């Protein structure tokens, strides 16, 4: 049975939506106000706030409030668990493909005999 990591699931869920990925891309440049993040999406502010809530729950962004202005900032290290998991998966599949390649080469040599 596969081991389920809630944090990893939250990260993948947060990144599964193109609007949220676009917001993260924008925040990679610099922190931004919520209204600035909402403008290019064409979505209403409550919808953008729900997207930001998903990103914040996954730990990908932080928000601060100064008076009526809410500013969001990217938390790049929040992607580390996902990066680690993907590297582990890559290593597993690389090993499987190496074994398969060795098997095919052995079979081809045996067929030539």
Structure description:
With 113 residues, this protein is of the alpha+beta class. The protein has a single domain, classed as Winged helix-like DNA-binding domain superfamily/Winged helix DNA-binding domain (Arc Repressor Mutant, subunit A), CATH 1.10.10. Helix content is 65%, strand content 12%. The protein has 5 helices and 3 strands. Strands 1-3-2 form a 3-stranded antiparallel sheet. Helix 1 packs antiparallel against helix 4. The longest helix has 33 residues, at 80-112.
**Count of the domains:** 1
Q: Any low-confidence stretches, pLDDT <50, length ≥5?
A: none
Q: Characterize the overall form.
A: elongated
| Topology-level CATH name | Arc Repressor Mutant, subunit A
| Strand ordering within the main sheet | 1-3-2
Profile the largest sheet: 3 strands, antiparallel
* CATH top level label: Mainly Alpha
Helix content: 55-70%
Give the percentage of residues in beta strands: 5-15%
Architecture, CATH level 2?
Orthogonal Bundle
What is the N-to-C order of secondary-structure elements (H for helix, E for strand)? HHEHHEEH
Whole-number mean pLDDT:
92
Number of strands: 3
GO molecular function: DNA-binding transcription factor activity
InterPro entries: ArsR-like_HTH, HTH_ArsR_DNA-bd_dom, WH-like_DNA-bd_sf, WH_DNA-bd_sf
Domain HTH arsR-type: 1-94
Protein name: ArsR family transcriptional regulator
């Amino acid at each position: 049975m596969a081991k389920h990591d809630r944090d990893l699931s939250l990260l993948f869920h947060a990144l599964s939506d193109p609007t949220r990925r676009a917001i993260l891309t924008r925040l990679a440049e610099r922190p931004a106000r919520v209204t600035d993040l909402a403008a290019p999406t064409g979505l209403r502010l409550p919808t953008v706030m729900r997207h930001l809530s998903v990103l914040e729950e996954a730990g990908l962004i932080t928000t601060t409030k100064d008076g009526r202005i809410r500013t969001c900032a990217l938390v790049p290290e929040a992607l580390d668990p996902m990066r680690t998991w993907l590297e582990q998966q890559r290593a597993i599949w690389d090993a499987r493909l190496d074994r398969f390649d060795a098997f095919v080469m052995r079979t081809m040599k045996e067929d030539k005999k």
